[in-house]
Design a protein that fits this description.
- There is one protein chain.
- The protein is globular and about 60 Å long.
- It has 16 helices and 5 strands.
- It has helices at 2-27, 43-65, 68-86, 93-100, 109-123, 133-143, 177-190, 195-209, 216-231, 240-246, 248-261, 265-283, 293-301, 308-314, 320-333, 356-363; strands spanning 160-163, 166-170, 306-307, 337-339, 351-354.
- Residues 23-32 and 285-289 have low confidence and may be disordered.
- By secondary structure, it is mostly helical.
- Strand 1 (160-163) and strand 2 form a beta hairpin.
- Helix 10 (240-246) packs across helix 12.
C-alpha cells in the first residue's frame, strides 16, 4: 500500500513539472526543428492536465490493489471496439471478445478482419517506438493487412477527412507526406511539451497530414495510445478510444475547429477531456459483472424522471446513436431503468427513471 501511495505522489510531482513545462513553452520559442505545430496553451489545458494526473494517480493505486489483469482485458476490448466503431465497424464488444477467445462469429468479413488486425496491433504496442518512422509504417501494415493493397506505404493521391459524407479537411499533397511525417516525428522526439499534450498535438497533426490512403483515424488514435503508454504504461489499457466513439461528433468538430482557427488547441482540449473521462470510467467500480461503466455512469446521473435529451446532456454526450447503444439500451435491457410511457416508446413525452433494481445497484456503487 505504501508503494502505491508513493507511486501516486510521484505522478502528481511529475504533473506539476508538466505544468511548468507548459508555461515555459507558452512564453519562449523552443530550439528544435523548424517544424512547429500550431498550438496555444490555454488555462483549460492546464486544468485538464492536473485533473488527469489526479485520476491517473488513483488508478495506479487501484491497479496495485485489485484484479488488474481482468480490468486490463476489459479495457483493451473497449479500446478496440471504440476505435473501429468510429470508422463504421459494426462489431460489438461481445463479438470482439469472442474473436479474442477464438470463437466464430457471424459478421461482415471486413469487420472481422479489421478487428483481428486491431487486436494484433494493440497487442504489439510494446514492440514499437513512437518516434520511429519504420515502426509507424510497420504498424499501419499490420493494422490494414488484407484491407488495403498498399498497407504500410504512404498514399500516392489526394485524400480528405470525412465526417459522414461531409469533407471537413483536405490533406496536403501526396508528394509532401514523407517529409511532413519525418518532421512531425522529429518534433515529437525533441519537444519539451508534457506527453499528455504532446500526444494530442501529434494526433491532430497526424490527422491533418493524413499520410495513408486509409486507416488514418485508427493509426492516429493507436499512436497517441503508444506515446502515452511510453510515458505511463497504464495508458496501454485506458479505453480513450471508447470515449471518443461516444463523442464522435465532438471529435470531428474539434478537428474542424482547429483547422479553421489554424490552432490545434480545441482538439487538444477535447482529447484531454476524453482522456480524463476514460480514466474516470476506469475508476468506476463494476456494479456487477454484467454492468458496464457506461451503464453505471447513467445510473449515477439519473435523478427522478428525465428525458432522453436530459440524460444525454447530463452525460455530456453528443452522439445520439452511441448514447442509445452503449448507455440507454443496455440499461433498459438489464431492467435497471424503465420508461414512464412503456406503451408509447417513441413518444416525445417519454422519460426514464430508475427501477427498484437500478436504485439498489446505484446505492451499492
Amino acid at each position: 500500500m505504501q508503494g502505491a501511495i508513493r507511486a501516486g505522489k510521484g505522478l502528481l510531482y511529475r504533473l506539476r513539472g508538466m505544468i511548468h513545462f507548459c508555461i515555459i513553452y507558452h512564453r519562449a520559442k523552443l530550439r528544435m526543428s523548424s517544424y512547429q505545430p500550431p498550438l496555444t496553451i490555454s488555462s483549460r489545458m492546464l486544468h485538464l492536465v492536473t485533473d488527469v494526473g489526479d485520476r491517473l494517480a488513483r488508478l495506479k493505486m487501484q491497479a496495485e490493489q485489485e484484479h488488474a489483469l481482468r480490468l486490463r482485458r476489459i479495457n483493451r476490448i473497449r479500446t478496440i471496439q471504440g476505435s473501429l466503431a468510429i470508422e463504421g465497424n459494426t462489431l460489438s464488444e461481445e463479438q470482439i471478445t469472442a474473436i479474442i477467445e477464438g470463437k466464430r462469429i457471424i459478421a461482415p468479413p471486413r469487420d472481422i478482419q479489421e478487428a483481428l488486425n486491431a487486436i494484433r496491433c494493440y497487442g504489439n504496442l510494446n514492440n514499437w517506438r513512437p518516434m520511429q518512422e519504420e515502426d509507424l509504417l510497420a504498424a499501419h501494415r499490420l493494422l490494414m493487412a488484407g484491407l488495403l493493397p498498399d498497407a504500410g506505404h504512404y498514399r500516392h493521391g489526394g485524400v480528405g477527412v470525412m465526417n459522414g459524407k461531409t469533407v471537413i479537411h483536405m490533406a496536403p499533397p501526396a508528394e509532401r507526406v514523407c517529409q511532413l511525417i519525418r518532421q512531425l516525428l522529429l518534433w515529437l522526439k525533441e519537444t519539451d511539451l508534457p506527453p499528455l499534450i504532446a500526444s494530442c498535438v501529434f494526433h491532430y497533426e497526424f490527422e491533418f497530414i493524413h499520410p495513408f490512403a486509409d486507416g488514418n483515424g485508427r493509426m492516429g488514435r493507436l499512436w497517441q495510445t503508444l506515446i502515452l503508454s511510453r510515458w505511463e504504461p497504464l495508458f496501454a489499457n485506458v479505453p480513450v478510444e471508447s470515449l471518443v466513439h461516444d463523442n464522435q461528433s465532438g471529435y470531428y468538430q474539434a478537428l474542424n475547429t482547429s483547422n479553421q482557427q489554424s490552432d490545434c488547441a480545441p482538439f487538444v482540449e477535447f482529447m484531454l477531456g476524453m482522456i480524463l473521462r476514460a480514466l474516470e470510467h476506469s475508476l468506476t467500480p463494476q456494479v456487477t459483472p454484467q454492468v458496464t461503466p457506461q451503464v453505471a455512469e447513467l445510473l449515477a446521473i439519473l435523478k427522478g424522471e428525465m428525458s432522453r435529451e436530459e440524460i444525454q446532456h447530463a452525460l455530456q454526450l453528443q452522439d445520439r446513436k452511441s448514447f442509445s447503444e452503449r448507455y440507454l439500451r443496455p440499461a433498459l435491457n438489464a431492467r435497471l431503468i424503465e420508461m414512464t410511457l412503456p406503451e408509447k416508446p417513441n413518444s416525445r413525452l417519454q422519460k426514464y427513471r430508475l427501477t427498484a433494481q437500478g436504485v439498489s445497484l446505484h446505492r451499492r456503487q
